[in-house]
Amino acid sequence: FLWFFFLMIRRPPRSTQSRSSAASDVYKRQIQAGVIGGYSLLWVLLTTTFFGYMYQKISARIGTVTNVDLACLCRMNFSKPVTLLLWLMAEIAIIVADIQEVVGTSIALWILFGFPLWLGILCTVVDSFLLLLTSEAGQRKLEMVFAFFIFVMAFAFVFNLGYIGVDWGQAAKGLVVPILRQDTIEPTMSLIGAIITLHTLYLHSSLVLTRQIDRQNTNAVRMAIQYFNLESSISLGVAFIISAVILCTFVRWRNYSEELDLRKAGIVLKEAFGDKSEILWGIGLFASGQASTMAGALSGQYVMQGYLNLQLKPWIRIMITRALAITPAFLTLLFSEVDSLVQTLNIIQLIQIPFVVVPLLRISSSVKMMGEFALKTWEKWLLIPVFVLLLGFNVYGMVRRGVMHGGIVIFAMIGYAILYLAMIAVITFAPMKQTTTDERTQDSS
Predict the structure, then answer these.
(1) What is the DSSP letter of 39?
(2) At 435, is the secondary structure helix, strand, or coil?
(3) What percent of the residues of the chain are helix, what percent strand, and what percent coil, each to the nearest 5?
């Protein structure tokens, strides 16, 4: 899939196209959104964060009520071919996210210490294993380390914005007035893919299993769901603030002649506001990479464990995914037009989301499995149209890329769009077993 898209979706050459090394981290999307869309995309960020919260709280609700994570529930309730399809799509998304984390962290090390990018990529292998040592101290310790990196990232980015300043009137207008221009469609799609990510939905359904809950007591389950909802709202609230800060930071470069990436963003900040601004940017970027590495390693472990019923030690799991990520990361440094690879990774992340949203909605709608905690009618009316809109964005993006390139690429992209919709239809209408509590307990044992 990755190399198919790289060949089919490559951006047409432009005289202003950046030919320097570009970072593939998720925050490149917020940078480009700020450069192209300005404050007008803040409403997209706010709306997407809200729906990301809705999907995350449903994921946590599934784990809380069933005492089984989402990946494992998919294996129990769908046929083997459907389970295999869902697993492959999840693994693709996790590996692509890991590539973004590797290259993004290497950019941070280049900014902070002047490391060559290839050396920074190798360093990410070492630091990922060091982070795994924290997991041996227990889930709570791991969450504390994760929270620390989030705090450092938020502090660095917010403090950096203090050097730059914000037009609060325009920012407030951008939050409440929905404007979507033709040139902001791609940044909008990227923002959606940055906030609603496949691996975090799998992760939320798994992390709640570490909490001790009396699932025979309905009130205890309800209170636990409320607690997890609050937890999700806080975490996504922080994510919204960080993303909004990055978007606002780069609003003033709307007329910049070249596309900004994470590496060039640091240079631009240094030229405009001095060394401190670039250092703060590098610190925030490094903390972001470490937090993302931890989330990716945990979600990868839960996905493989749930779908394949395969128990792997965390260090083996991260060795596999990081080995798969390092090769494309090194290849990124060899391409003259690396922005096309970055765009490919972003598109792959976005098109994978329906492969987790469909089973999420189907399982959470099952009264047999969820009981009184199944999706309410108003939740279905709210979330299903959003899913259809997301699917439409993906298909539009594929066809648009084909039209931009012309020739045989048009037919290739239309063909893949049809295949994509067919795969979504398969998992949408495939029979679902709807296992009972006793069957889930027996399978888990």
Answers:
(1) G
(2) coil
(3) 80, 0, 20
Quote the CA–CA distance of 346 and 22 in Å, as a whole number.
13
Amino acid at site 184 = T
Phi and psi at 226, nearest 5°, equal -65, -40
Tokens found for residue 216: 């025979």
Q: What is the CA radius of gyration of the chain?
A: 21
| CA 370/CA 203 separation, integer angstroms | 19
Q: Tell me the one-letter amino acid at 175.
A: L
Please report which confidence band the pLDDT of residue 260 belongs to, taking 50, 70 and 90 as the band edges: low
- Give CA–CA dist 86/75, Å, rounded: 9
pLDDT at res. 8: 39
Vertex 333, ends 132 and 347: CA angle to 5°? 75
Output the CA angle 7-195-159, nearest 5 degrees.
110
Supply 212's token pair.
């001790």
d(CA 241, CA 377): 31
Give kind and range of the element (H or E) at residue 147. helix 139-164
Question: 């012309």: which residue's tokens?
Answer: 406
CA quadruple 146, 147, 151, 154: dihedral, nearest 10: 70
**436, 368 in Cβ contact below 8 A?**
yes
Give the integer Cα–Cα distance in Å for 220 and 200.
25
For 115-169, what is each residue's pLDDT tens digit? 887 787 778 777 766 666 666 666 666 667 667 777 776 777 777 677 666 777 8
Inter-CA distances, 1 with 92, 104, 308, Å = 8, 22, 21
DSSP assignments along 65-129, one per residue: HHSS-HHHHHHHHS-HHHHHHHHHHHHHHHHHHHHHHHHHHHHHHHHHH---HHHHHHHHHHHHH
Neighbours of 114 (CB within 10 A): 9
